[in-house]
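Q: What would this chain look like folded?
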Amino acid sequence: MRDVNSFPVNPRWAGTGMSPQARKITQRERIVDGMVAAANRRSYAGANVSEVIAEAGVSRPTFYEYFADRDDCFRATIEELGSGLLAEITGAVAKALPQDALAVAVVELVSFATTSSQRARFLTAEALTGGRSALDARDAAVRAVADAVAKRERDASSGEALPDVDASVVIGATFRLLARRLRRGGLSLAGIEGRLAEWVCSYQRPQPRHWERLAGGPVLARSAFVPDVPVQQMPDVLPPGRPRLAEEQIAENHRLRILYAAARLSSEQGYLATTVAQITRLAGVDGRVFYRHFADKQEAVAAAHEIGFQQVIDVTGRAFFSVQGWPERSWEAGRALTGLLEENPIVARVGFVEAYAIGAPTVQRIEDSHMAFMFFLQEGLLSVGVEPTLSREAMEAIIDAIFEIVYMQARMSEKPRLAEMLTPIMHIWLTPFMGTATT
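A: My prediction, written as structure tokens:
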């Protein structure tokens, strides 16, 4: 696969003899290239217009000839890289057998990341750090690739075995897996395309399929491990005057109120749109109190995210070990996870959508959480006896697919119906270990 997002070598404009129209096209490409470089170095927050034009080697007025502002340029860059990638994948998928279409798309994504790592990093990783229009563009790129796969799969003969899984979930999961490796430059991409293709093929079953479209299933009984009290809620306002409480109690009340306000506002309007003034107003504290506890908005929302993360790990882990047998443990863990997130939509929204915009330490924390969830899968290798052993990349992809489902649901609604996602999540979780006949 060629480098789908390679830009032409930028010539010196003086004396090139280029037409005004050709020059405009090249200048726009330079700006897009500059956005890729700036965002990869400092994420969305640091990719301001000054950084972009410095990378692109154009003037500020030239930038505004093509883009209204930084957000417009960021979104347009996602769209352009996504369109170029889609063209390559569509061509490759058209040449593939229908039953191989999804695996071929995944292989092409890995090839894109290998041959055009900076542009792939921007599209798969840094796109998540932008605002809601950026997330819309990222999600549209995922859906477009999935639609190309679905179109080719419709050419399959009746009864042909096809991957029984929503292509959007697989493509989104592959984006996440590649993002993690591209963000951490030391993680190799060598050979992973074959192992990911094997993972995709593990979901193959003869038509008719059951899971090719992500849809809700039956809601099971509420897990006993989901706390009755919301994970994040606003503590009572202290009475006016000097309350008869210890200073430590007053400080803790203020801290918790700030954390709740930071999480709720980030969930409702997005982290990037949230300000310290809004947080203090909702929390009922003044700015001096805020800054006694937190250095800035980033630190406050990161702390709120950590509370939610710890609760997710605690609830899921306790449910997992409450029963015997790996498949049964997996079901209990999944039931607790989806129940917790449905009853705590702020945790789902901040933890799986907004957290990427908070900053590099929080993104690192999200990626480290994959190691915690990996434990739940590794027991399956021993208890089910998968032959040949499921690859580490396949297990990472399973976790990424589950994260993608939660992300998709959290983005769709203020009150995501995640409990209904338990059965498709368990299909993603168990089928590569147990086979399609069992699940």
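DSSP finds 18 helices and two strands in the chain.
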